[in-house]
Design goal:
The chain is of the alpha+beta class and 285 residues long. The chain has one domain: Endonuclease/exonuclease/phosphatase (Deoxyribonuclease I, Chain A). Helices cover 18% and strands 31% of the residues. The chain has five helices and twelve strands. Helix 1 links the parallel strand 1 and strand 2. Helix 1 crosses helix 2.
Length: 285
């Protein structure tokens, strides 16, 4: 069994306005004994964020999960007035060995009418009991529909790329150096705050066939709960930012070859440690 949690942690800021990385770690442990954690909105040296003192949340979360490997993906990287770097992005923490890791900057086409920022997809190839598995987490554009659509297109391209690399051969003359062939399987889990809802055309687009021989993505929730609508993952408690009806925009997609392994998907609806709810995938592996 592989337990994976994905969560937009809102720079560890709860609905009480308090930034508390230790609380994020505690809620994750209460949710499940996770093998892989996928976090969005992790901050380093950003005191301008509400409630933050500029703490290095990548480091604090790593300390909270000893024995886990950290794969950080920086999307926003800017100079602070004192010359240091301010960084914001996503992170994967894995108790299983990370064979290799990738950081993919997603498309950021100009859209001057709305606020925007660079986004990143963090990919880790983990060594699970039955073989290597790709885990990718990201956070798509909120304000710009054009950026969000371009980013969905890029995620599909990355899946096609990985399916091609899954066929890479071993090149003995380069076996010991950086050219050495490493596993990058087509089988994958994709998590994110996608900033779209289940009725958005992008939700269907992400699950459309990609190319012959490339396993497409499927939303794990209807696999586990075919007769139930998605439980809300945003706006459950934070009615200041999200005054309307709570809704789902945090999904866990699996490639179609993994669909039969989905055992359960659970939304932790009890916590208000972020404006989003953590989502747990239980995958037979």
């Amino acid at each position: 069994m592989l337990n994976l949690i994905t969560w937009n942690i809102q720079w560890c800021r709860g609905c009480d306005g308090v930034v508390d990385p230790a609380r994020i770690a505690r809620v994750c442990r209460e949710t499940a004994d996770a093998d892989v954690l996928c976090f969005q909105e992790v901050a380093r040296n950003f005191p301008d964020l509400d409630g933050s003192r500029g703490e290095d949340q990548f480091a604090l979360l790593a300390k909270a999960f000893p024995g886990f490997e950290r794969v950080a993906g920086i999307a926003v990287d800017v100079r602070a007035p004192d010359g240091s770097r301010r960084q914001f992005g996503n992170a994967i923490f894995s108790r299983l060995p990370v064979v290799q890791a990738f950081r993919h900057l997603l498309p950021f086409p100009a859209d001057p009418e709305v606020p925007g920022m660079q986004r990143v997809a963090v990919e880790a190839v983990i060594q699970a009991a039955s073989g290597p598995l790709r885990v990718t987490t990201t956070h798509l554009a909120y304000y710009s529909a054009n950026q969000r659509a371009a980013q969905v297109g890029r995620l599909c391209e990355l899946q096609s790329d990985a399916a091609g690399h899954a066929l890479d051969g071993i090149h003995a003359e380069k076996e010991g150096g950086p050219f050495a062939t490493q596993p990058r399987p087509a089988s994958a889990i994709l998590t994110a705050d996608f900033n779209f809802r289940p009725d958005d055309p992008l939700y269907a687009r992400l699950q459309a066939p990609i190319a012959p021989g490339v396993p497409a993505f499927r939303d794990s929730w209807p696999i586990a709960h075919p007769a139930r609508p998605h439980e809300p993952t945003l706006g459950v408690y934070d009615k200041d930012q999200w005054p309307g009806e709570a809704f789902c925009c945090d999904f866990i997609f699996v490639t179609e070859d993994l669909a039969s392994r989905v055992e359960d998907v659970v939304v932790n609806s009890a916590t208000d440690a972020s404006d989003h709810q953590p989502v747990l995938l239980r995958l037979g592996w």
